[in-house]
Amino acid sequence: MPADALLAAVIFLATLGPGRVPAPGEPGPLLLQVALVAPLVWRRRAPLTVFYAITAAAAVQWVAGVQLPADAALLVALCTVGAYCTGRQTLVAGLTLEAGALLAAARWAPPGQFPFTAAALTAMTAAALATGLWTRARRAYVTSLEHDREQRARLAVAEERARMTRDMHDIVTHNLSVMVALADSAAYVRHGAPEQAAAAVEQIAATGRQALDDMRRSLGAGEHGEPCRQAGARLQPAPGIAQLGSLTDRMRAAGLPTRLEVTGDPEAMPAAAQLTVYRLVQEALTNALRHAPGAAAEVRVRLTPRRAAVEVVDDGHPGPAPGEAHGRGLVGMRERVAAYGGTLHAGPLPGGGWRVAAGLDIGGDMAGKGTA
């Protein structure tokens, strides 16, 4: 509003001008000048009301036969209507001002100059209207950009939460399953084979430390604060293809005989894609450990420059693993694979056991789009 008040003052003084100050006994023109300009103070608060208030003052001016340059306030008011009012309101206001322009040209145009005067006033009306419409379109465009930016920010937050949920599920489920299996094993052999029990306890401690390390890394990846960066600096790189060997070692120690076969060059594979492969294998082996006691598992990873194929098979009991058909773990695996435009198949084998197979597109533009 202060800016609009300043605009009204500038228009008033500019249209008053030298030699245009009315005589002391003739306040009428000055009052009309004020009536034409003063409503502009509220032009953005009530644009339509201001326009018609100025139009009414201009009509009084026309009836009184007083020609004042403060009529320019009508153009500013019409521009504001175009910028802030609906299309229908803008059209009615534009036609109203055009009618007034033709009446003004008919009354004050020099003899024989009506067409030129009417054309000039019409051009000014059209320019004011176009300026208002452009302002409205520009404001709508900026608002749309802000909305898109906010939407992208919300999507980024949602994606980050989904990533952390997947990571927490994988880390907690896997490591707790391994620790429970090791604890059961230690309790079983603590009297007959204390050395094995001690080794199992050490493995439990190592698994717990690994879980804490993974959790710090996962949480640090989603934060930008200094404490997380400092904590992340002490952590090892995120697990990948090279860590599948230690993963299968832990699974064997927990009671799941596991065979690993990796073909291809993992060095050419993006780190994020390697982490996705690691999490897929980890989740599949954890499910086998939990739901197929006494089973053995095979892990096959085949890498090419543009694709990674992962297959985990166990020879457990026939039929689906309990709770896995719609569990959070399977949903998380599908989300990870979908981030790379891949496919995931999980289900029971005809002769017994469970198979998880996934294909990831890691070549071209997809190499940097996956989120693990």
Descriptive key words:
372 residues; alpha+beta; Heat Shock Protein 90; five-stranded mixed β-sheet; 5 strands; 9% strand; disordered C terminus
Describe the structure.
- The chain has 372 residues and is of the alpha+beta class.
- Among the domains are: 2-108, no CATH class; 239-372, Heat Shock Protein 90 (2-Layer Sandwich).
- 62% of the residues lie in helices and 9% in strands.
- The chain contains eleven helices and five strands; from the N terminus they run αααααααααβαββαββ.
- It has helices at 2-16, 28-37, 47-64, 72-84, 87-108, 114-189, 194-221, 226-233, 244-253, 271-291, 328-338; strands at residues 258-263, 297-303, 307-314, 343-348, 354-361.
- Strands 1-2-3-5-4 form a five-stranded mixed β-sheet, covered by helices on one side.
- Strand 2 (297-303) and strand 3 (307-314) form a beta hairpin.
- It is rod-shaped and about 120 Å long.
- Mean pLDDT is 82; it is low at 223-233, 322-326 and 364-372.
Spatial strand arrangement across the major sheet: 1-2-3-5-4
* H/E topology pattern: HHHHHHHHHEHEEHEE
CATH superfamily placement of the domain at 239-372: Histidine kinase-like ATPase, C-terminal domain
Average of pLDDT: 82
CATH architecture of the domain at 239-372: 2-Layer Sandwich
**N-to-C span:** 52 Å
Would you count the extended β strands for me? 5
Q: Any low-confidence stretches, pLDDT <50, length ≥5? A: 223-233, 322-326, 364-372
* Biggest beta sheet summary: 5 strands, mixed
CATH topology (level 3) name of the domain at 239-372? Heat Shock Protein 90
Per CATH, the class of the domain at 239-372 reads Alpha Beta
- The helix/strand class is alpha+beta
> Helicity level, as a percent range?
55-70%
